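Need Nucleobase:cation symporter-2 family protein's 3D structure for a figure. Predict it.
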Amino acid sequence: MSQTICPTSLKPTSTVTCYPTGGAAVAAHPVDEKLPALKMATSGLQHVAAMYAGVVAPPLIVGAAIGLSAADLTFLTGACLFTAGLATFLQTLGFWKIGARLPFVNGVTFAGVAPMTAIVVATEDKSDALPIIFGAVIVAGLLGFLAAPFFSKAIRFFPPVVTGSVITLIGVSLLPVAFGWAQGPDPRADDYGSTTYLTLAGITLLIVLLLRRFTRGFVKQIAVLLGLIAGTLVAIPFGVTDFGPVADADVVGFPTPFHFGAPQFQLAAILSLCVVMVVSMTESTADMLALGEIVERPADERTIAAGLRADTLGSAISPLFNGFMCSAFAQNIGLVAMTRIRSRYVVATGGGFLVLMGLCPMAASLIAVVPRPVLGGAGVVLFGSVAASGIQTLVRAGLDKDNNVLIVAVSLAVGIVPITAPEFYHAFPETAKIVLDSGISTGCVTAVVLNLLFNHLGRGREAQDVTHPMEAGEEIAAAH
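Structure prediction for Nucleobase:cation symporter-2 family protein:
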C-alpha cells in the first residue's frame, strides 16, 4: 500500500500537494500551481502594471535631486526595474533557505527615498552621492540578511488581532497613493486634481467594477489589466496619454555594473539606511503575514526568515547593478486578494517582465504610457481590497474581548496619524521620522506592544467580554 506525504503546516481548509509514494500526485496548492502560458503572462503583466509606478518613483526623485541627465535618469530607472525583477525571482522561486515562495513582488522601497535624498543634500560632490548610497545599501542588506532568522522569531507576537490591524493599515496607507495618482502626474501643475483627471480615474474604476461584476473566469481575473488598457484608450482624446516615452526609448540597454562609480562606505549613510532596513523588514513581515492569510498558506517563522533573506539579499545585490534597496510591494497583495490568482509562478513571470523592461527601455516605456489618473482609478480597487482583507482577519480576532478592541483601536489610530496629519512628527529628528512617518511600521509596533501588554503579561487576568469598546467589563460592573 502506498503512503501519502502531505505538508502539515497548512490550514485544514487549504488545498495542498499530496505525493503518494505509489501513485500520481493530486492537485497542487494554488500557490504552487502553474497556469497556462497565456494566463500566466497576462496575469504577470497585471502585477507589473500595479507596481510599476512605485518602482520608478524613487529613482526619479533621487535622480532629480542629484541632477542626473535624461539619459542617466532613464538608465537608473531601468536598473531599478531590472533589480526588482531579480529580487522577485529570489522571493517567489527561491533557493536553499532564501525566498518565502509566495506570490510576492519585490521592488524599490519608498521608505528609503527621504534618507537617500538627505544623503544627496549632504554630499558636496553630487557625483559621489549614488556611490555613497549604493555602499550604504550593500552594508544594510548584508546586516539584514544575517539578522533575518532572529527577526523572524517575532512571528509569535503576530496573532490575528495584530495581523488584522496591520493588514488594514497597509490598505488604508496605500489609498492616498491612489488618490494622488487620480489627481494627475504633477502636484505642482495648475490642472492637478482637474475634473478631466478625476473623470478618467472614475471611468477606469467603473470599467474595473463592471468587468468584475458581469464577466467570469479569466476575463474577470484580469479585470484590472483590461481596465488599465481601456482607461488608457479613453484618455487619448483628452490628450492625457503620452506616447513620447516609447518614441524616445532605446530598444536594448543593460544596467552595466557600477555605472555611477564604485560603492563608497560612509558611516552616517550606513546608519541611516540600516534604520530603513529595519523599517523595511518590519513591513515585509507584516506583508508576508497578510499574504499568507490571503492565499491560505499562513507564513510561519521559517517562511518569514526565508522571505526576509530574499528581501535583504536582493537589496545587497541591487547596488551592483545600480539599483536601490528592495522590499515586498504591498499593492500587489491587493491584486492577489482581488483576482484570487495565488500562483507564485504568475508573480515570477511578472519578475521576468521586470527584467526584460530593465534590459529593454522601450518595453519599459509601454507601461509608462498609462496615464497616472488611470492608475489611480485601478488603485482604489487594489488598495481597498487589502484593507478589506484586514477587516476579514479582524473578524476572526476575537473582538468580543475588550483587550483586543483596544489593541485594534489604538493601533489603527497611531497608524493613520501620518496619513491624516502628515506634519505631526515635524519636530522629530529626520532619522526618527523615517520610522514615524510610516503608518504601517508605527501601527505594527503599537499592535505588537499592546498585544504583549494586554494578552501576554499577567496572563492570569483574562480579557473581559464586551459588546462595545466603551462598555465596562464584568469586574468593573460588579464593583459598581
